Request: fold
Amino acid sequence: MKTPLLLLFLALGNFVLAQDKPDSPDMRSLGISSNDTTDRYIFADTALIRVSPDTKQAPIDTLFAGDNITVTGVTTNSLTIRGLKGPWLKINYSKNGAPKNGYIWQGLVSCTPLRRGDVKFVYGIERRADSIIKRDKDTIRRFLVRLKVVQEGKVLASRSFITFDDESANYSSGKIMSGMGLTNVQNIITLEFSGDACGISTYDYYFAFTKSNQLLRFPDKENVSDAGSFYHSETFTFPSEKNGKPDTILWNKLVEEDTEKVDKKGNPILKVTEKKSAVYTWDGVNEKITNSAQK
Reply:
């Protein structure tokens, strides 16, 4: 009996170790680990739940965009859809007041869950959206990310964007703010995608959710630094913030580079190599934003 039990123990150990490092680079920015219990939303408009991590058997249930789930495990089984390769997840959820469990492909699950009251802001990776550089015949891995506004099971609005590149899509997070003083805006939503090393940019993608339930793309911003030798900063100032102006978003960009000199404390001395600003004007009646000035 000892040998079969030992083999079973080793097999289970290998399964757990395999779970720790799933082969799913396309799903890095979802931030789901096999070691944690993670709350998420359903991202897809319709998601099929399976009794096992494969498509061989008929679905046991159907969930919809914005439904709550808890991820309890990551399997080694993977599936590729719309160019995205991702693992199957083991989940717990509730349906008609009854607790249930099953398996779902990770591409149907949201990134960081965001909400304000009974309104959920559900974002996830919809598909690969690679760019081809014809001259070099290189492929830049990129992802189409979609944001959906869901209230009481109904998708009110949705918008999408394409990440700048693959390196800046290692992690993602989100933030829901007030209307920031903009006329007829309920919320400003920021989705951040970033890398895992110095010199890789962090991009913030902005959206406005208006009082007429429209979801609009706003200007993006980029920030990056490289170990004190380079610093690129972009900031927005909204009407409700210090120095803000009515229905106006002020954008400022500052780039500094190392002079190869240090101050008395040994810190590198940087010099400003680029400085720009722009003014975005918000029309709350027609729900439009325009870049009215830049210098």
User: Anything to note?
Assistant: The CA atoms of residues 28 and 170 lie 5 Å apart. DSSP finds one helix and 21 strands in the chain.
